[in-house]
Write a structure and sequence with these properties.
The protein contains nine helices and nine strands. By secondary structure, the protein is α/β, with parallel strands linked by helices.
Length: 242
């Protein structure tokens, strides 16, 4: 059982385990989301094909289920998973589950199933600490073909991020923004992109023709869309500058 908040890599880890099981033994591995599990069961019931649906998963050598909390309050799905769990446990087959909270804390989850889900190894994944954020940032910037500037890394590491997903999103925002600006990735550029409420560089003033047609400031050429902000939200203009 892999437990952790959204964005810390539970699904990636689950798929990695599935691939490792396939590569090492060539076994048949069932790896799916809880939503898919529920949807397939509903379709099987509608088409009176539940026995065939059951047989497919009972044939597998390993069963990996992502976001098990999403079967909460699904009586039929929980019963099928309960029976499948018992079958795999009796046959000593591998099972791996992910969840965003401890199973016993899932509202609407059957107590019998919750107790079985925590009967094996329970691994908790916490949000990335500073050292891990630094490693991820350095690796990601290298993949983007960017030099890992120490000052930039320090600045990004100190930003408040609660998951790997938000950390990578921040990197993408900085790299994409710097490319759109035609600027090198520096602390100053990153700060301007990530702290819009802070001090900004002076921008050329925008002008309107008497006809009301927007006239972009001279010298600005970009494929990207820019949003120019005024204190009054009704006066904001968004246009594509070419």
């Amino acid at each position: 059982m892999i437990v952790g908040p959204s964005g810390v890599g539970k699904t990636h880890l689950l798929h990695a385990i599935g691939r490792a099981l396939c590569d090492r033994s060539g076994r048949t591995v069932a790896c799916l989301s809880a939503e898919t599990f529920v949807d397939e069961l509903v379709a099987a019931i509608e088409h009176r094909a539940v026995p065939g649906w059951r047989a497919r998963y009972r044939y597998a050598s390993a069963f990996l289920l992502d976001d098990v909390q999403k079967i909460a309050a699904r009586k039929e799905s929980q019963e099928e998973l309960f029976q499948l769990f018992n079958l795999f446990a009796d046959a000593h087959r591998q099972m791996v589950f992910t969840c965003n909270v401890q199973p016993q804390d899932i509202e609407g989850l059957d107590d019998r199933l919750a107790s079985r889900l925590v009967s094996g190894l329970v691994a908790t994944i916490s949000p990335p600490d500073a050292e891990l954020r630094r490693t991820i940032l350095t690796s990601r910037l290298a993949r983007e073909g960017e030099t890992a500037d120490a000052a930039l890394i320090d600045y990004l590491v100190d930003r408040d991020t609660d998951s790997v997903r938000s950390l990578l999103s921040m990197v993408q925002r900085v790299t994409g923004g710097a490319e759109a600006m035609g600027a090198a990735m520096t602390v100053q550029v990153a700060r301007e992109l990530l702290e819009p409420e802070g001090p900004r560089h002076t921008r050329p003033s925008l002008k309107m023709r008497t006809s009301g047609v927007f006239v972009p400031p001279r010298g600005i050429q970009s494929r990207e869309k820019f949003v120019w902000e005024w204190p009054d939200p009704m006066e904001r203009i968004m246009d594509e500058l070419t």
